[in-house]
Amino acid sequence: MGYKVARPELNIFEKSYVPEILKGVGVSSRHFFRNIFGKKDIVTVEYPEVKPDYASRYRGHHRLMAREDGTARCVACMLCSTACPAHCITIEAGDYGDTDVEKYPVKFEIDLLVCVYCGMCEEACPCDAIRMDSGIHTPSQMYRKDGRVGKVDLMALGDLSIAKQGGELS
Amino acid sequence: MDPILAAVLFAIIKISIILLGYVMLFATVLTWLERKYSALIQDRIGPNRAEVAGLRLGGLFHMIADPIKVLFKEDFMPRTENPIMYKMAPWLSVVPPMVIFAVIPFGPGDMFVISNAPLGMLFIFAIAGLGVYGSVFGAWASNSKFALLGGLRATAQMISYEVAMGLNLVGVFMIYESMSLQGIIVEQGETLWGFLPAWGLFLQPVSFILFMASAIAENKRAPFDLTEAESELVAGYFTEYSSMKFALFSLGEFIEIIAIACIASCMFLGGWQIPFVDATGGIILTSLQILAFLFKVFVLVWLQMTIRWTLPRFRYDQLMKLGWLYILPLSLANILATGVWLYFAA
Question: Residues near B90 by Cβ (< 8 Å), separated by ≥ 6?
Fold first, then answer.
């Protein structure tokens, strides 16, 4: 059994359209004149000149953070590439030798065309090495191979981080 | 000089001044004005990027930039059985509204009208009837189902509203006992009961409303833009047109807006008559009267544009119902009432 939808009955003035159309013309004109002379209600943001404010947790272009000596904080633990639902992170681990940090990434590559910007990698990272807080939109490329961003570019966006290694609060 | 040759030369000069100096210029400004005006109604900014020498002037240069862009676009043509028909359609929709200006009087006397034809309104009806060919040919020759559906809608809509549009003006002809636009305008210079100009708007108010409604429907603009309903038919009958051919369709639409405004201001707003000034002659008065006409045309163009950006689109059955069940019987009743009134007033 269906519902009986009560539709509003139009009176004779509304059925003749004319007063209602004049009312609508009035509304349109009010907006027009207010936007020209009075308080402007325009919501458009003129993008290249005016940038909209992003939320502080906006996830943009990835970046790799550096230690005080300038090397990458990443220890090539593969947690980010394991957590990544799109499998866009490729890490090749290298050995430091006798330091207390065992590994470092020889190659750290993110395919931006595959990345879904979910933020799982920065949540998984125990070293505060990868972050997505650069505030930069995903860039566009001419060729697909340019979508693969390597360690050097990611480090260039990066910054110094002095958080304790291993996720402890400093 | 041979008087016939002189008359032809004079007519050519008048045609070029009216068409190039007024109609085309106004239509070009309208392409920018409509975008800007609709933007401001909808709390947007609208076109503002085109600049010449660092000046933007609220995007005024878009009216130059748009035609240049459109001219240099690829003129894509679908595979069709009727290439001639396909190429003819844009012209068939842009030329008839232009031809209407042949009988529009911009000022008093024979000086400011290309042809002061005694049956000017019949000429306008004949030419307006040709307008449907543009959309039908374009739709048929495009070899596309969206275009064909749009063309079918356009045909049915234009034919049914043309009837109503013609009948709505019959009341005006009966009151002013003329079918020449100049004659009707001269009659409207009188004053009724000492305070009201004898305009068609006051003598035939029902006609005015119904005429504007059916004229907007005839021009296929919102709320009657079912022929190009973008949510259903991509762009309707000109879906397959690109480049300048596409621009000609919209140019024809803008010229028709001006043509409708001109006809309506001649029929209902007294044409070049200034209220309470029932006189002609003199350079100052004549130029004031021309300005009055241009002002009335502008007001009616504004009205059409505001209605277009205010109302949502009709459903197709509502459109047909409005045309055949309301506007047509109302205009017939209006003719009858006018006849009865004239019989007892005489």
Answer: B134, B138, B238, B241, B244, B245, B246, B248, B249, B252
Cα three-residue angle A22-A23-A27, rounded to 5 degrees = 115
B317-320 contacts, C-beta under 8 A, 24 or more apart: B319/B157, B319/B217, B319/B224, B319/B226, B320/B156, B320/B160
Lowest mean pLDDT of A98-107, A130-139, B58-67, B253-262, name the range: A98-107
Split at pLDDT 50, 70, 90, the class of B288 is confident
Ranked by mean pLDDT, the top range of B39-53, B276-290, B325-339 is B325-339
Nearest neighbour of B43 by CB, restricted to A24, A43, A46: A43
Residue B179 has pLDDT above 70, yes or no: yes
Locus of tokens 């595979």: B79
- Residue A170: per-residue pLDDT: 47
Strands A103-111 and A148-149: antiparallel
Mean pLDDT of B41-56: 82
**Half-sphere CA count of B137, side-chain side, radius 13 A:** 18
Mean pLDDT of A3-14: 83
Residue A138 to chain B, least CA–CA distance (Å): 25
Q: Per-residue pLDDT for B200 more than 50?
A: yes
Maximum pairwise Cα distance, chain B: 67
Q: Name every chain B residue with its beta carbon within 8 A of the beta carbon of A35.
A: 40-41, 43
The secondary structure of A9-53 as a DSSP string is: PP-HHHHT-HHHHHHHHHHHHHHHHHHHTSS-------TTTSPPP
Distance (Å) from the alpha carbon of B41 to chain A's nearest alpha carbon:
5
Q: Residue A32 is encoded by which pair of tokens? A: 């027009």
pLDDT in the model for residue A168:
55
Residues 6+ apart with CB under 8 A from A112: A61, A88, A138, A139, A141, A147, A148, A149
pTM of the model: 0.79
Residues 6+ away with beta carbon under 8 Å from B239: B142, B144, B146, B147, B150, B233
If you search the block for the tokens 């697909």, which residue do you land on?
A144
B40 vs A35: CB contact, 8 Å cut-off? yes
Mean pLDDT, all residues of chain A: 84
Amino acid sitting at position B104 = I
One-letter amino acid identity for B202? F
What residues of chain B lie within 8 A of the CB of A36, using their CB?
A: 40
* Residue B336: per-residue pLDDT: 92
**With contacts defined as CB-CB under 8 Å, which chain A residues touch B209?**
18
CB atoms within 10 A of CB A76: 22
Structure tokens at A151: 């360690």
Specify whether the CB–CB gap between B50 and B65 falls below 8 A.
yes
For residues B161-185, one letter each, b for 16 or more C-beta atoms within 10 angstroms of the residue's C-beta and e for the rest, the string is: bbebbbbbbbbbbebbebbbbbbbb
Contact partners, residue B165, CB within 8 Å, separation at least 6: B128, B211, B214, B215, B218
Q: Both tokens of residue A96?
A: 């430091």
